[in-house]
Amino acid sequence: MCLKLLFGFDNLPVVYVLFTVIQVGLSINGFKGIKWLENVSCVFLIGILAYMLYVVNTKFSVEIGERFANIEGTWGMPFWAATTAFLGIYSTMILNASDYSRHVKKGTTPTATGVIYVLSILPVTLFMGLIGLLVTAATGNSDPIEVFATAMDNKFLTVITLLFIAFAQVTTNVLNNIVPPSYILMDSFKMKWSHATILVGILSICVMPWKLVTAESADGLSLFIKIYSAFLGPIFAVMVVDYYILRKRTLNVNDLYNKEGIFKGINWAAIIAIAIGSFCSLIVVDLSWYVSLIPSGLSYYILMRVLKSSEAFRKGTVLEHQ
């Protein structure tokens, strides 16, 4: 959208390939380069979003006031379905938090780490959600970038802002969509970082994601997010039960990477629990993430107690000497 507004070019496949090449190029030198890039971009991103909010609220204050004057909210299915989609998107970041926390300086407390996560995610998320809500309410157009560009009176500021938005999209994708799968490829296939990032870029092009962002695919994209949430929710539940309930927040990180250690093999209690939670989720797809939590967590705890094949994985847990 930014390139279309700036240069009149909107060939999505070509734009996606171009952005992917840029993202892979920025990532190929490792996490230190990515960290520097993110530190620079986050300042501009917060500033741009604040400015966009100001412009939208100023230009459409009357429409926004009229639209929200007598609006009635709901805590029913629309709200919970929307938050399910939101959690589905951010579950990948939640489950892959260690990809980023491993680079935190030694001695950083869990509280400080939590504050870092909140400050890095919450302000931007709230800004984006609020801008999208106001724009849609005022104009009926759900694309805040398009509305913002047409609402600006200053052409120079419009161009600069849109360029920074495009830059922010690149940096966000680098952190969220390149780092986690690259680490997975490195761990699974013993690949070098540079090779893994290039392969991630190639694979991302092969799945043709530009097909998912068209107006015709909006409903399908929403359904897709809810369906894969059905699998991410159970994984989250198993991890929470294992860390907080079974291991009482005590975990030897070195054991995780010891091929002959206590985590050697497959913990079928976790696999079965995830399968149970996923099955329950698919029954109520609109609430998939929430529906999966209790079945997965409870079944994992029970299976860890009774499953013979999971006996080795009980070491270091409250079930070790049962």
From TrEMBL:
Pfam family, one: Transp_cyt_pur
InterPro entries: Pur-cyt_permease (IPR001248), Uracil/uridine/allantoin_perm (IPR045225)
Record has Ligase as a keyword: no
Transmembrane segments: 12-29, 36-55, 75-95, 115-136, 156-175, 196-213, 225-245, 266-284, 290-307
Topology of the protein relative to the lipid bilayer: Multi-pass membrane protein
Entry keywords, A to Z: Membrane, Transmembrane, Transmembrane helix
Subcellular location, record wording: Membrane
GO cellular component term, pick one: plasma membrane
Gene3D superfamilies, alphabetized: Hydantoin permease (1.10.4160.10)
GO molecular function: nucleobase transmembrane transporter activity
Family note: Belongs to the purine-cytosine permease (2.A.39) family.
Name used for this protein in its record: NCS1 family transporter
Protein's organism: Mannheimia haemolytica (Pasteurella haemolytica)
